[in-house]
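Task: sequence design from structure.
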């Protein structure tokens, strides 16, 4: 499209999952119950780990961070969806959409990296049990979590900056119940080649960094278990 069709938008319209009023009430109850179960379930996990000194171990430290990540991910998407259904509104401000997209990418990326770190933790515990407490010392565990946060926050900031450079057309309807990166890029009138290139490059780097680590860890775990005598 030409430049004349581009505009400085102030809001997006989230189309959601359905326009049927009866189904919207059903979805409201379903997502509200799932949200409450997720929040309180993960809060109980964090409370149990922090209150019991016997659980102050690397595995439970990573598990508590994963629970916090689940809370953050659910809180980023579901509350706004529930408000939109209840208020019969689809409006999401431009700043709010960028904020939601950024936090969503932070918590999704953080969950992926935490799962990789937990796989490494189990690898050390099973394959090198005598050196486990030396390798997985508290300082190293904190550094691993900080590294996960740093990488995901930098990735989210990079994606957000790439979206900020885009110009959007008058049609700003997102066929989703939250602001998803690809859907926003598809609405742009300006050139999006570098946005897609950056998505694929970063996704490839992150996948090559986390997935092989998880696979290697569990392969070594399975191999170590098979070498243990049945007696």
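Answer:
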């Amino acid at each position: 499209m030409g430049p004349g069709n581009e505009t400085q938008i102030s809001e997006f319209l989230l189309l959601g999952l359905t326009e049927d009023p009866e189904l919207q009430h059903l979805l409201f109850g379903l997502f509200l119950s799932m949200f409450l179960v997720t929040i309180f379930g993960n809060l109980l996990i964090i409370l149990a780990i922090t209150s019991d000194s016997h659980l102050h171990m690397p595995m439970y430290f990573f598990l508590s961070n994963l629970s916090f990540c689940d809370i953050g991910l659910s809180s980023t998407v579901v509350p706004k969806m529930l408000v939109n259904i209840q208020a019969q509104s689809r409006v999401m401000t431009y700043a709010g959409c960028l904020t939601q997209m950024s936090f969503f990418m932070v918590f999704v990326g953080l969950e992926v990296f935490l799962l990789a770190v937990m796989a490494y933790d189990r690898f050390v515990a099973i394959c090198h049990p005598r050196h486990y407490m030396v390798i997985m010392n508290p300082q190293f565990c904190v550094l691993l979590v900080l590294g996960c946060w740093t990488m995901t926050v930098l990735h989210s900031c990079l994606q957000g900056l790439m979206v900020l450079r885009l110009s959007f057309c008058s049609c700003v309807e997102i066929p989703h119940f939250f602001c998803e990166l690809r859907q926003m890029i598809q609405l742009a009138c300006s050139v999006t080649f570098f946005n897609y290139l950056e998505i694929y490059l970063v996704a490839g780097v992150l996948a090559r960094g986390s997935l092989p680590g998880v696979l290697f860890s569990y392969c070594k775990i399975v191999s170590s278990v098979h070498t243990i005598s049945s007696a």
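The helical segments are 21-51, 58-87, 94-127, 132-135, 138-164, 181-186, 193-227.
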